[in-house]
Specification:
Strand order of the largest sheet: 14-11-6-10-9-15
Largest sheet: 6 strands, antiparallel
Oligomer: single chain
Length: about 650
């Protein structure tokens, strides 16, 4: 789709999209005998362009003011709404704003600032025209209508953008940058502003539909490699392919990521005596757009961990019984921070409105002197230092390895010796009861308090809906922190894997923790479901070869090692074995040996990602890199982070 949402449609030739509207039955008169169109049909084209320029949605009343009460977007005239005092427009009539659309937008801001302007109602003919036409556009799938306190809002669909792109004029100054589904969603999030920044139902539909289209689309792409087989009996260069996979479409990668999450939790089980479960929310009033709030939360978390790990020796520790708790007035004298770097598992979640928040499981937290409670930091201090919001929660946990003796704590997915989930005959993960983990310190800690105190403390955390470690009354007595985190993440992966091969058939709803629009929020903003501290990441990277252990030229290093080994073998006489007859005392013999070694290896060059219909024809159809003798061992990059969300059919992908 060509043309940027914010301004590229200004380069769209209105006459060029009129035939497209006519083909969909969206013109009132159609093309006249002389090839021209009536002005009302041009208004229809201008309205569609206006809606596409507002991916977050535009009020129907404002569209009427902008397109019909004002001026045609490209004529250069003023034509302001006649309810505006002409004297108020004097400052807009200057050479510094020669563009009619910019001047018109300034005037609309002036109109919006007036409190005595007439409102548009059913008696206004232009508004009735826009109302009927927007309903026709909705019926044709070009827009979606939603009610809001300010009036009916019109949200464009990607189908409308596709139609507009056909009318883009490739002229100097026209922005012809490709706009993909992901970029369209980002622009929508960047435009989601105002009180509350709540996602509307059409916006959720757009997010969910965009991600599902992306997953369907990448099924048709292949990664293409040129494999140099010099020295092989087949000889020459073969072109080979691999299926294009990302974390959104590759079930194996999803299973591996979930296994890594379980490994991270198990690392905590084996190395930490306690933990604290923290919830860090988002206050929408602190941000201009929803996109800004999502992109800021990880940065703010990094600042918070830096603060907590610092050690101001001049400040007293609130963990000590003789030190008062932190307050803004005592910030210069006391602190409750851990004063050390803690390992953690961090999960990013989205609320129904689209607000991001974090659940963080901190391991091996310092304890409070008077009762041994895990004490991450004073709650008021955390609320004051957390830049994203003021609402936070801290839930102390203790490690228990005999959970089956004290209650049922839910199920966990069974993994094999390779860390992959074990599946039954129907492909569903095999589960077993949780037998170890971190549980509520109030209920299972050694503090000496009675049941009433425990109930009061746990109710404090649940009343705001932040952390609820209790399970269903009929099934679960309690939850472990791992079950709390794992249940949410497993639902995300389950949604992706269940619908991987039936996206056309599965229905989309916006209920539940793993709703498609929530998945799309991760996808559109390039966020991960979960992450861990560097300490845990390095500890569970067992079997991974450190990058600094590899020579810059791996092929040369392998060849050198092979040459050394063969040189020693050829010099020895071992009964029953035949070795190549190389005269290793001469340069020629050593050269022949190197040539023979090189002939056993292949050089693999990555050409890029191509649509199946655009694959280069050179020997592509007969070779699949997955099934051939050649095995490529490397950490494949997540190519979904390439420019745009659609794998480009070009050789230079990086």
């Amino acid at each position: 789709m060509s043309g940027s949402i914010s301004g590229g449609t200004a380069g769209c030739n209105t006459s060029a999209i009129l035939p497209g509207l006519q083909n969909h039955g969206l013109l009132g008169y159609g093309q006249l005998t002389d090839g021209s169109y009536k002005e009302r049909d041009r208004d229809r084209a201008r309205l569609l362009k206006y809606f596409v320029q507002h991916p977050h949605g535009a009020l129907r009343t404002r569209a009427t003011h902008s397109v019909l009460k004002g001026t045609a977007l490209n004529t250069g005239g003023l034509g302001w709404h006649d309810s505006l005092d002409p004297e108020e427009l004097t400052r807009y009539q200057s050479d510094t704003k020669p563009d009619a659309l910019e001047r018109h937008g300034d005037a609309l801001d002036a109109i919006a600032a007036r409190h005595d302007r007439p409102t548009l109602d059913g008696s206004d003919s232009d508004y009735q025209f826009v109302r009927r036409y927007s309903e026709n556009l909705e019926s044709a799938g070009f827009v979606e209508l939603s009610d809001s306190p300010a009036g009916t809002r019109v949200v464009p669909t990607l189908k409308a953008v596709d139609l507009i792109s056909e009318g883009i004029s490739e002229t100097a100054g026209t922005d012809s940058e490709i706009v993909h589904d992901r970029e369209f969603c980002q622009k929508m999030l960047q435009s989601t502003r105002g009180p509350g920044m709540k996602l509307s139902e059409p916006q959720k539909d757009l997010l969910a539909g965009s991600l599902r289209r992306y997953i369907r689309r990448i099924d048709d792409y292949r990664l293409v490699f040129d494999v140099d087989l010099d020295g092989w009996r087949s000889g020459g260069t073969q072109r080979m392919t691999k299926p294009y996979k990302t974390r959104w479409s590759d079930g194996g990668r999803q299973d591996k990521n979930f296994a890594r999450l379980q490994q991270s939790l198990e690392y905590g089980y084996n190395n930490a005596a306690n933990a604290v479960f923290a919830t860090l929310t988002t206050d929408p009033k602190k941000f201009d757009t929803l996109y800004e709030a999502i992109m800021a939360i990880n940065k703010n978390f990094h600042r918070l961990t830096q603060y907590m790990s610092s050690d101001p020796t001049t400040k007293s520790d609130t963990r000590n019984a003789d030190v008062l708790n932190w307050s803004p007035g005592r910030d210069d004298d006391v602190t409750g921070r851990p004063r050390e770097s803690l390992d953690y598992v961090k999960v990013l979640e989205f609320t129904k409105k689209g607000y991001p928040h974090l659940h963080v499981l901190f391991f091996d937290v310092p304890t409070r002197d008077k009762d041994g409670m895990p004490w991450l930091i004073d709650k008021k201090e955390l609320s004051h230092k957390w830049r994203q919001a003021e609402v936070v929660d801290l839930y102390p946990l203790t490690y228990r390895d005999d959970l089956d003796e004290i209650g049922y704590f839910g199920d966990t997915v069974v993994h094999d010796e390779h860390g992959d989930p074990v599946r039954d005959d129907e492909g569903s993960p095999v589960k077993e009861p949780v037998s170890e983990g971190y549980v509520c310190w109030y209920q299972h800690g050694d503090h000496g308090h009675g049941d009433d105190w425990v109930e009061e403390q746990t109710r404090y955390h649940k009343k705001n809906g932040l952390i609820d470690m209790d399970g269903d009354d009929d099934v679960l007595q309690s939850k472990t922190a791992g079950a709390y985190i794992g249940k949410y993440i497993s639902k995300m992966y389950e949604t992706l894997q269940t619908a991987a091969h039936s996206l056309e058939d599965t229905e989309v709803d916006h209920d539940g923790e793993a709703a498609w629009y929530k998945l799309a929020l991760y996808w559109a903003t390039n966020r991960h479901f979960w992450s861990v501290s560097n300490g845990i990441r390095d500890a569970i990277r067992l079997g991974d070869l450190p990058r600094d252990a590899l020579e810059p030229d791996v092929r040369a290093a392998v060849a050198d090692c092979t040459e050394t080994t063969l040189t020693r073998v050829c010099a020895d006489e071992i009964d029953g074995h035949e070795f190549p007859d190389f005269d290793l005392e001469t340069d020629r013999g050593r050269s022949n040996l190197r040539r023979a070694i090189r002939g056993t290896m292949a050089r693999i060059d990555f050409l890029g990602a191509f649509h199946y219909s655009d694959l280069p024809s050179k020997n592509t159809a007969g070779y699949d890199l997955d099934r051939d003798l050649i095995r490529v061992s490397h950490d494949s990059p997540d190519l979904s982070i390439a420019r745009g969300d659609r794998p480009p059919p070009v050789a230079s992908l990086y």
